[in-house]
Design brief:
The complex is a heterodimer. By secondary structure, chain A is an alpha/beta fold. In chain A, about 40% of the residues lie in helices and about 25% in strands. In chain A, strands 1-3-2-4-5 form a five-stranded mixed beta sheet, sandwiched between helices. The chains are: A alpha/beta, B alpha/beta. The structure holds flavin-adenine dinucleotide. Flavin-adenine dinucleotide binds near residues 15, 35 and 110 of chain B.
Chain lengths: ~120, ~325
């Protein structure tokens, strides 16, 4: 299990359940390595700021992580971590290798942000 | 009000050490950090030369230092951006993320360094899709593939040899006709049948579609340019100090490193610096920790004098 304070996805079933129960999901699939740790740290910090997004991690080397590794969106990835953003169970964006807080929040705002503001103003 | 006695800029080994010393001495301390807490320590899989600890992952050591600083009361704000600052004002002030203001009587700069990038077309586009800066992280994506390692220092030569565990062939591309690495790393690479060399040459462009497919290489002597098909490129071309924001404000040397005296004081009163961002020869966790200690103790002494001077000024005016 990854040593983070995020929700850990330990199996294909848990992954499916998480997508079913949450509209906006960000999953970071990696190891406890230098390119992955900064991404987990940003996600931990964003949990409070983006309550409408479910943040989770998954260990890259467990067999069930094929749900991420084998995604067509990750076909050309060759750098950890693989980060996948889901809306209503569908992949809307995937990134490879380390990402800064700014890069992550701009993706969250683009794909998950507007909706909440619109919903809140209704 | 967001006023602290001390603001430390950077939460690597130097900044966290300064944070531990200051907050333990009951100095109200804020650490502002742009990236992940731990800095370059987090990039290190194993640290085996930190006295008293036989072997520890960089992540664990950084985490321990962070918890220790927080336990003594230091406030750490990570993944922030300092959008403007004034080191000459009294108090010194920082604007974070364009909106939050923090002030302090003393500042310690510990912004460290980062990997140098090539800065050529395609480098950003293919990061994670063929271009990597971490052999231990991404080496296994290149099983039986052909890769290039860029650089001629210890990291480049050492990692080139270790990447032959995965890659079918490793070509080292280096801009000079000789290596700067220790002789044993060079000899090890030269003796490895999987390693080839392209000397006096630079990659000038990365080319591909959805992933990296080839690179353009230019010979530095003849200016001749050729293309090479490649699956991956690992870049190890040294480090640059994170001091851009201080250019024209604090005295830097020709390498853009912060100039300090033996007390880690910069040319600005009440501003100290420590760690990899200062002008020095050896960049290690132990040296960063040592300088962080000196900077913290000097800063505490400055605060003492500063408070006495403020009190004296108050007495004169009252
Ligand atoms: C791959 C690798 C392996 C290494 N192995 C070892 C080893 O085995 N043993 C050893 O002793 N040393 C090792 N080192 C060297 C060691 O890690 C460094 O010398 C040391 O960590 C430097 O600490 P620092 O605090 O000065 O800087 P850094 O660790 O660079 O920390 C600086 C911090 O400041 C932050 N920062 C930068 N700019 C700003 C800004 N504008 N505003 C706010 N914050 C900012 C950064 O995000 C970072 O968190 C290694 C280095 C690398 C890269």
């Amino acid at each position: 299990m990854l040593r983070t304070n995020l929700t850990h996805i330990l199996s294909e079933q848990e992954h499916a359940k998480l997508l079913q129960e949450n509209e906006n999901v960000m999953v970071c699939c990696g190891r406890m390595g230098p390119m992955c740790i900064p991404v987990y740290e940003v996600m931990e910090e964003l949990e409070n700021e983006y309550p409408h997004v479910k943040f989770a991690d998954m260990e890259f080397d467990i067999p069930d992580a094929r749900v991420i590794r084998d995604l067509p969106e990750c076909r050309n990835f060759a750098g950890l971590p693989f980060v996948v953003y889901y809306k209503n169970g569908k992949v809307v964006k995937a990134t490879s290798s380390i990402q800064s807080r700014e890069q992550i929040t701009s993706i969250l705002d683009q794909y998950f942000g507007q909706e909440v503001k619109e919903a809140a103003s209704k | 009000m967001n006023h602290y006695d001390a603001i430390i800029v950077g939460a690597g080994a130097a900044g966290l050490t300064a944070g531990i010393y200051l907050s333990r001495a009951k100095v109200k301390t804020l650490i502002l950090n742009e990236g992940a807490v731990g800095g370059q320590m987090v990039l290190t899989h194993e640290i085996a030369n930190y006295p008293g600890i036989e072997s520890i992952s960089g992540y664990e050591l950084a985490r321990n230092m962070k918890l220790q600083a927080q336990k003594f009361g230091a406030v750490i704000k990570s993944n922030i951006k300092i959008t403007s600052f004034d080191l000459y004002s009294n108090p010194k002030r920082f604007i974070v993320n364009g909106k939050e203001e923090y002030t302090s009587d003393v500042v310690i700069i510990t912004t460290g360094g980062r990997s140098r990038t090539l800065g050529v077309p395609g480098e950003n586009e293919f990061k994670g899709k063929g271009i990597s800066y971490c052999a231990t992280c991404d080496g296994d994506f290149f099983q039986d593939k052909e890769i290039i390692v860029v650089g001629g220092g210890n990291s480049a030569l050492e990692e080139a040899s270790s990447l032959t565990k995965y890659a079918s062939k490793v070509t080292i591309v280096h801009q000079f006709d000789h290596f700067q690495a220790f002789e044993h790393y060079v000899n090890e690479a030269k003796a490895n049948p999987k390693i080839d060399f392209i000397m006096e040459s630079k990659i000038i462009e990365f080319i591909g579609g959805e992933k990296l497919e080839k690179v353009k290489i230019q010979n530095q002597k003849t200016s001749e340019i050729f293309e090479k098909d490649i699956d991956g490129v690992f870049i190890f071309i040294g480090y640059v100090p994170n001091t851009e924001m201080f250019e024209g404000i604090i005295e830097l040397n020709q390498y853009k490193e912060i100039v300090v005296d033996k007390n880690m004081a910069t040319n600005i009163p009440g501003v100290y610096a420590a760690g990899d961002s200062i002008a020095k020869r050896y960049r290690q966790v132990t040296t960063a920790v040592g300088e962080g200690t000196v900077a913290a103790l000097s800063a505490a002494e400055y605060l003492n004098k500063f408070e006495k001077a403020e009190l004296a000024a108050e007495e004169v005016t009252s």
